[in-house]
Every structure is written in structure tokens, then in C-alpha cells.
Amino acid sequence: MHCHLDAPANAVSVCRDAAQVAVAGRSIFKIYAIEEEQFVEKLNLRVGRKPSLNLSCADVVWHQMDENLLATAATNGVVVTWNLGRPSRNKQDQLFTEHKRTVNKVCFHPTEAHVLLSGSQDGFMKCFDLRRKDSVSTFSGQSESVRDVQFSIRDYFTFASTFENGNVQLWDIRRPDRCERMFTAHNGPVFCCDWHPEDRGWLATGGRDKMVKVWDMTTHRAKEMHCVQTIASVARVKWRPECRHHLATCSMMVDHNIYVWDVRRPFVPAAMFEEHRDVTTGIVWRHPHDPSFLLSGSKDSTLCQHLFRDASQPVERANPEGLCYGLFGDLAFAAKESLVAAESGRKPCAGDRRHTIFFKRKLDSAEPFSGLASSALSVFETEPGGGSMSWFVDTAERYALAGRPLAELCDHNAKVARELGRNQVAQTWTMLRIIYCSPGLVPSANLNHSVGKGSSCGLPLMNSFNLKDMASGLGSETRLDRSKGDTRSDTVLLDSSATLITNEDNEETEGSDVPADYLLGDVEGEEEELYPLDPEHVHPEEPEYVLPQEAFPLRHEIVDTPSGPEHLQEKADSPHVSGSEADVASLAPADSSFSLLSISHTLYDSRLPADFFSVLVCDMLRFYAEQGDVQMAVSVLIVLGERVRKDIDEQTQEHWYTSYIDLLQRFCLWNVSNQVVKLSTSRAVSCLNQASTTLHVNCSHCKRPMSSRGWVCDRCHRAASTCAVCHHVVKGLFVWCQGCSHGGHLQHVMKWLEGSSHCPAGCGHLCEYA
Amino acid sequence: MFVARSIAADHKDLIHDVSFDFHGRRMATCSSDQSVKVWDKSESGDWHCTASWKTHSGSVWRVTWAHPEFGQVLASCSFDRTAAVWEEIVGESNDKLRGQSHWVKRTTLVDSRTSVTDVKFAPKHMGLMLATCSADGIVRIYEAPDVMNLSQWSLQHEISCKLSCSCISWNPSSSRAHSPMIAVGSDDSSPNAMAKVQIFEYNENTRKYAKAETLMTVTDPVHDIAFAPNLGRSFHILAVATKDVRIFTLKPVRKELTSSGGPTKFEIHIVAQFDNHNSQVWRVSWNITGTVLASSGDDGCVRLWKANYMDNWKCTGILKGNGSPVSGNSQQGNSTPSLGSNIPNLQNSLNGSSSGRKHS
């Protein structure tokens, strides 16, 4: 419930029976009746044509004994009292012009009808007896401006005053000469204070330092009981009726909200009212015994009545849990202790925990408080081997990505994967080896057959296939499909562990083929045993012949160009060329049943699988990437190199590379990461390790900059950066002493230093390698 | 199997967020007691508090680490309407404070007029950027133009979400094919059934963030949101913590098909939805490969979710907050995040038509 005022309010005060509220501001002074649904303007106390500064109110207070009596503090230093019982329109009663500067606060004595207290910017507090024309006594704070004065509710003679220098003073009204007690409560001005309505010794103070402090004044020295940290300077503080630990605050600037705090939980407000659009200047609990209604006035020219039940509750909205997945699969979990502890006995509460009934009860019952909320923090660590990421680290470190023939790389990586229990990955590597290495290896077998034995062995095979294909009248496309089917069945076979042996047999076969490539015709016998290629035998087991089929082109290539071994290394031979070559070459031993065309077709197709597989392999790489195993995708990409690269668009590759590198760096696998960067073909990636670091190399002999990239200095024509231990040029990790600048291979120097602490170059320096 | 290691956090109020750093060796916690603590893992695996300091004058909702390339940098956000950037200073501590590292406030971001509910550093490849969201429904994106100067941040974008925001998540993808993207969740609890998750995408042409998608099916207050780490995936996975756990996939529809210049269109699927927490879900967090999701809810438990080869998400473990094991409905020990042992998996992929190709 709220109503619009004509002007910004500076203060609000309610009358004793909580039925009316006075609103005062620089250009407003009105009394509103509080009705069920709305505020109704009862009286405008700003009368007269000429606006007087006396009416510019900084504060207003309604007497709690006499409902006709109000007092206002004017910005020009005047204290005005108003008598609503006056019959005339002008209700102004008395005028005290004793303060020299703005009066910040006025306060009636809670039980004495005629005693009024004021505190002013001029540093003085004055006590007025309304039956007299001037002040009874003047209290000099001896410090700075007075911001607030409050009579103690329980101690008849006592009042507290707060000052701009951070002090709080306690006065006996009978002793104007000096204060009873003084202490520094805040850092910076103390804007407000409020005596606890029940606890006689408790005083709450609020200051520019954004804090609300609760002091126990009964002890010899004021003791700080609680300290609430708010987010902005505290302009007003008011204890909530009937709730021993609650108080409401509003801020002087920036923050427009009103907060209700439980002083025992000093960090999170218990409730929050967010209605005002500008600074809230005055707050007051409507009734001294009703904790649910709060009235407020604001610079946004509104007067509001807040219902505590409707307040938003930051506590309820606050997230009670924190959860984070660690790098190694460990989980950090912080949860509100009550959630964790109560769990065992409690049935899971169904539905929304913000149920209204729960809500109401919690709010309206006199402050339920289950102690300070706290969280339990724990880290769930994965036991070694169980779900941790060690497989990733191991794999990254042990995989071989380059520098060896493809078959070896695949074998090695398959072995690594298998040892780590990653069977699927191992299978994939094995398959890749079969797919990509066989054309280079098995062909050599066939080559031997054809060269050594003529057409007797090699051709029947081809024969059988072609004949079969042609007989069934399959076009090249259907044949493609069929070979796809073959690979599928192949895969299926490979996957079931039962055929693993077969698989390994295959490998062995291939392995034994390797030397055959170099020793032409040397292994004929063995080949025969391995491939008992009778035409009758051929038909029933088609998958077996997929590999021999692929062999053809290479055979002819080797016949034509004797650079077989080289070819093996390159691997990326164009199927077209070899196809046509094969076509020509196979003319000689061709059976009469072959047409030239058909052979070329077959050979072409038999070469095609390399391409065909690459589509499949690309799919597989994507599959791994989508499954979150970018390591596999990148590793295969690097190992296979050109074979698949062209089939995956640059952007995707780059994405995989950057993702994998990021992951490696997370695990601090810098060497692997750098290797990947180096091996990557993506331009955006390979420049990663060349950015932001510049190396300036000087020759160790002539001390001049090395211009070329080599290891020999252009100027003195000597090898720069030789190892002081082995006297060879250091390539790679170089370590040197910063004292004498001698150094060498990291390993060598480390070894040297085990035996001696002197420089290995013999310069006599006691080297320090940090 | 998980081993729980309980840590005496010694925060004086609720802990609202826990965050591991890039390398998983440091941990930061923040609490309503207005402080942030930094924990370092010792050789023996114990966590030691190496710094604890008052960061804000209100509850600290979130704390997050920057990529270590930018230094040891933390950002925190708070009820006090500010977000702050902190940097660790090494070597300036005197003898008395040895062992306690020293964190210096580099900047305070004061643009919000309400509680700042989340703060997240952008993925590294975007530079040193920071996004905050606040209860007044505005997402702000800041950039430090000079990565060496952490005290200068300029407000680059202000995105209005219309709803009180509770959480944000950057899309971590480093692919050039994916524009910078940020998902925003709202915990607005007003009864109107508005969608509570919005996704904004940076448009190169207009140089502004524009709304790309709204998850219409999420209408309950959202407490947390998290994109899965994108390790080379062509699509994005988004986990949402609301009254249940939900997992969405967002597959970009090919650019050629959409009109160029406009926001990317996505094919959005909800792939999982679990109400096993029986009440509000507060947090979701992905493992490093984006294959396992952890969620925590009002039941005080952490639940782990993992997809099988059929893309069916299943619970693979339950962890109780106080460390005691819960009779798990699955053998956590065997659920290595590796892809191994699922033979049908590969079969599917090579058959071509199934999951592997489906995603591409």
C-alpha cells in the first residue's frame, strides 16, 4: 500500500494509536490517516502564503503520549511544535530559534509530556520544556555535529546522542555539564541510533561505514554485541517490535531498499522491501507492538506501508549449495549443513520448498532462529583408477603421434590404449592400421606372387572377384555398397572379442609382409601359405579378399617404378594413376574372360576404399569428438595426416586442435601440447607456439646476434651453443649458467653437476642452474 | 569410487559457490560472510586455506577464476551490487604473513543497481572478458583491453533480459564456427509462465549481442546453468538447474540455410530431465570432458549423470554432502569417463547412420 506525496519526504512519524502518520519534508508537512487499503490525507500543516524556512522539515516526531502534539526540526535551526488541537488552520504552537544550524533530530521524552530534545548540526543538544519559551538546558557534545538524539525508553533521565565524528555519548538529562559516557562507535559519522524497546541496555547505531552495531550499555564499557554489515551507509535504524533480534535499516544514498536484519545473522538480511525508487528517508514501525507493518517515506515522493509478509527474502533466494567439478574428476561440494545433516532422517520434501504455509509461519512467528547458518565443505576425490582423468594424462603422454611409420604408430597407440583398459580405442587404432597400412603391405605379398609366380596365384584371386562381380552384374555403385557392407561386418567381427585373435592373426600376417616389400620374391613360399588362394576357396570368404584386392595397384607401381620403399613411406598415392597403370600392366597376364574396361573398373574400385574409408574414418573422428574424446580425434588426425585431413573441414580441425591443446594445458602437459601444436597442419594452431615469445640468440663466441636460423654463426663461422660436456651442438633443451654463460644439454649438465659444482667448461665458476 | 575429504571451511555463513581453477589445484570458496577463501592442494592432497579476505559488504554469491594466462585472477560478485576482480600478488608478503598469499583488488564494477548474482570470465580465446548478471535483469559484458592492466575494464555490452537474472554461462567453444554465446537463467518466481532461459549470441555485423534462443519449456525459477565443455563438438550441451535437472542440446542449423547476418538458428532438444532431487536443484557442473554432469539439490546430495551410447542419460552415482556413501544404483568405480568398454558404441558409429553421424 502506498500513496504519492507532492514532494520528497524527509521523515515520517506515527501517532500513538497507529491510525495516522505525519510526513515531513523540505516542502511538505502532511498528516495521513492509515486506512485499510489506502492513505487518506487528513491535514496539510503547511499553511500560509509565504513558504517559510521554518516549515522546511528535517525531522518530525509525534508525541507518544499526546496525540495532538508534534515537533519538527527545521533546516534553518528552528524547532517547531504543533498542536493539532488548535482550532485555527495554523496549528503551529511554539517556535524555538536557539540552534544556529540545521536541527537534525527532535525527540520527545517517552513518558514526560513536556520534554523535548533536539540535536543540531551546530554540535549542541537542547532540552526544551514545552511550558516555557526557551530551552531548559543545553548539552555540548564537545565534538562535531549531532546526528541523532534518543531518549532511553527505560532510563528516565538518560539519552543517547550520536555525532559526525563517530562518537556516541550517553547523557543524564540532569547533568548538562558533561556526558556520562562517550565511546567511538563507528568509523565516520554515526547517523542514527535506536534503543531496544525491551532490552534496556541495548542501543543500535548505524553509520556511514555501512555498519549497524548493537551495544550493551549496561556494562561499564559499552560492549559491542552484534555488528551488521550492510551495503550502504545506514541512515535510519529501528528495532522491530516484538522481535528481539530484528531491526530495520535504510540507507542514506545509493540503496533505496529497506532491510530487516536478524542481528544474529549479520551478513544476510532477513527481509527486504524494494518498493522505493529513490532513497528511503524515514522508516517507522506502525505500531509499537505489531511486528508486521512498516511505514516508510522516500525521496521518490511516496509513502509506503510494507507488510512484512510480502517482503522478499534474500535468505530464501540465496543459493545454499556450491558445486564444482574438478579437473581430475573430483567434486567440490559445499552445502548448508541443515540440508546435509537432516537428510538422513528427513523424508524428501515434495514440491516447492517455498510453499506459502511454510513461508508465512517462518515469517510471522516470533523469529524462528536455528542458529547461524553454515555450510559443510567437502571434496569428493576419485580413487586412483576410478573415474579420474589419469587415463587422459597417460594416453597423452604415451601416444606416439609422429616420427615412425604409420603401422607402428597405430600399433603403439593401440597397445597404449589397451594397457589403459580402453579397448574400444585400441580397436580403433588396430582398425586404422588395417585400413591404411594394408594397401601398402599386403600388396607386396601380391607383388611377389605375380612377379615370382606369374599369374598362377595373383590372378585367380582377381579373377574370381571380377568374375563374380561381373557375373552378378553389379555396377560400381552397388559394389561400393557391398564393400561398405563388408567393412561393417568387418567391424562387427573386430568388435566382438572372440575375433580378436583373428584380428591379431591379420596383424601378424601384415607384419611378416613388411620385409617382403624390400626382398622381392624372397617370401614366395610363405605367401602361398598365408594366402591359399584357390578359386573355389575364394568365394565363400569374401572379407578375406578385400585386402588382396587393394593390393593390385601397388604391385604395378612397383613394377613400373622400382621405388617401392619410398612409396611405402608416402602412402598417399593417387588411386587414379595407379589404377590406370594397373590397367595397363594387367593386360599381360589377363585372362580371356576379362575386358580391359572391367579390369580397370575393378582396380579403380579396389583402390577406392582408401577414400571410402576416409569418409568412414572422418565419421568416426567426429563421433569421438562428439563423445567428448577429442584426444582420439586429434591423435588420429595427426597420425593419419593427409589421408583424412582433406575430408574434414579446416574449421572443425582447428576446433579439435584448440580444444585438445586447451585440455592438455589444463593438465600441464606442456610438452605434449607443444608437440600437437607443432604437428598440426592448421595454420591458426601451428602459430600458437610462436606467439608472444621472442628469442634473441647470440653467438656464444663472437657474442653477436645470430641472423640465420642454423647452428653456425655467420660471422665467426663456428658452431654456436655447443654443449660444454659433450662439445656437440645443442638442439632442443639448452641449459646454461647465468654466471658464466656456459651450458649444454640439460641431461649432460645435470649429470655433471651430480659430480661437481664447478662449470663443466673449466672456467672455474661455481655454477648455479636454477 | 569416491572418497570424501571433509574440509573445515570456517566460513561464518553459508558458502554459495566453490570453484576450481584451470588446473584443478586451487579452489576458491565464497560465502555470505562477505569473504572469499582460496585453497591450495598440497602434495598429499590436502586442501590448505592460503588466503581469506573480506571482499564485499554483502553476501558473495559467486567466485570464478580467470584463465591462468592472465595471472592468478579471481572475480567475485555480491549482494552489495558490485563485482570485483582480484589478483594474487606474490613475493610482497612480509614474514608475518608468510604462507598467506596476498590478494589485491584490481577493480570494482559498480554498474549494477541491484545484487550482482553471477560473474563469469569469457573463454580465453575471446580475450580478457567478464560477464556479470544482476537481479535487475541486465547482463553486462566487460573487457580489459590491456590484459596486463587488470584495473581497467570497459563496459562493452549491456543486454537486457527483462527478468531478474540468477546465473550465466559462456559457451566455451573455441571454434570459429561458433559465435560467442552466453546463456542466462532467471530465478524470477513470479507466477507468470515466462521462459527462464535465454541465449544471446554475438553478431559480428552489428557487433551486438542478440537473442538467439529462448528455452520455452523452462518456466520455473532457474538457479544454475552450465554449458558443457565443448571439446570439438559441433553442437552445444546446456544443463539447467531448476526444479529438476535438464539437459539440452543445441545443434546449430547450417549457416547456409539460415539467412546470413541473423542469429544462428538452433535445433534444440531436451535430452534429459530428472526430478530425482525431489525439490529445487541448486547447482549443475560438468566434468572436464563434458560427459558427466553433477547436480546438487535440496536433498543435500550430489548426483552424477552420464549418457550411454544411445544418448540416454542415466544416474551413475549419488554422493551425500556429509561424505557418507549412498547406496549407489550403479557401480561408480566402473564408470570411467573414458569411452572404453562400450563395444556397441563403435559399432554404431561405423554403421554410419547412428549417433556418430546424427550429430554431425
UniProtKB/TrEMBL annotation, chain A:
It is found in: Lysosome membrane. Pfam families: WD40. Its main location: membrane. It is an enzyme of class 2 (transferase). GO terms for biological process: autophagy; cellular response to amino acid starvation; positive regulation of macroautophagy; positive regulation of TORC1 signaling. Component of the GATOR2 subcomplex, composed of MIOS, SEC13, SEH1L, WDR24 and WDR59. The GATOR2 complex interacts with CASTOR1 and CASTOR2; the interaction is negatively regulated by arginine. The GATOR2 complex interacts with SESN1, SESN2 and SESN3; the interaction is negatively regulated by amino acids. SESN1, SESN2 and SESN3 convey leucine availability via direct interaction with SEH1L and WDR24. It comes from Dipodomys ordii (Ord's kangaroo rat). This is GATOR2 complex protein WDR24. InterPro entries: WD40/YVTN_repeat-like_dom_sf, WD40_repeat_CS, WD40_repeat_dom_sf, WD40_rpt, WDR24.
TrEMBL record, chain B:
Residues 324-360 are annotated as: Disordered. Residues 324-344 have a biased composition (Polar residues). It holds the Pfam family WD40. It is found in: Chromosome, Centromere, Kinetochore; Lysosome membrane; Nucleus, Nuclear pore complex. Gene3D superfamilies: YVTN repeat-like/Quinoprotein amine dehydrogenase. GO terms for biological process: attachment of mitotic spindle microtubules to kinetochore; cell division; cellular response to amino acid starvation; defense response to Gram-positive bacterium; nuclear pore organization; positive regulation of TORC1 signaling; protein transport; protein-containing complex localization. WD repeats lie at residues 8-40, 274-306. One of its GO terms (molecular function) is structural molecule activity. Keywords: Cell cycle, Cell division, Centromere, Chromosome partition, Kinetochore, Lysosome, Mitosis, mRNA transport, Nuclear pore complex, Nucleus, Protein transport, Repeat, Translocation, Transport, WD repeat. GO terms for cellular component: GATOR2 complex; kinetochore; lysosomal membrane; nuclear pore outer ring. Residues 345-360 have a biased composition (Low complexity). The keyword Repeat applies. SMART domains: WD40. SUPFAM superfamilies: WD40 repeat-like. Component of the Nup107-160 subcomplex of the nuclear pore complex (NPC). The Nup107-160 subcomplex includes NUP160, NUP133, NUP107, NUP98, NUP85, NUP43, NUP37, SEH1 and SEC13. The SEH1 subunit appears to be only weakly associated with the Nup107-160 subcomplex. Component of the GATOR2 subcomplex, composed of MIOS, SEC13, SEH1L, WDR24 and WDR59. The GATOR2 complex interacts with CASTOR1 and CASTOR2; the interaction is negatively regulated by arginine. The GATOR2 complex interacts with SESN1, SESN2 and SESN3; the interaction is negatively regulated by amino acids. Component of the Nup107-160 subcomplex of the nuclear pore complex (NPC). The Nup107-160 subcomplex is required for the assembly of a functional NPC. The Nup107-160 subcomplex is also required for normal kinetochore microtubule attachment, mitotic progression and chromosome segregation. This subunit plays a role in recruitment of the Nup107-160 subcomplex to the kinetochore. As a component of the GATOR2 complex, functions as an activator of the amino acid-sensing branch of the mTORC1 signaling pathway. The GATOR2 complex indirectly activates mTORC1 through the inhibition of the GATOR1 subcomplex. GATOR2 probably acts as an E3 ubiquitin-protein ligase toward GATOR1. In the presence of abundant amino acids, the GATOR2 complex mediates ubiquitination of the NPRL2 core component of the GATOR1 complex, leading to GATOR1 inactivation. In the absence of amino acids, GATOR2 is inhibited, activating the GATOR1 complex. Belongs to the WD repeat SEC13 family. PANTHER family: NUCLEAR PORE COMPLEX PROTEIN SEC13 / SEH1 FAMILY MEMBER, NUCLEOPORIN SEH1. This is Nucleoporin SEH1. It comes from Dipodomys ordii.
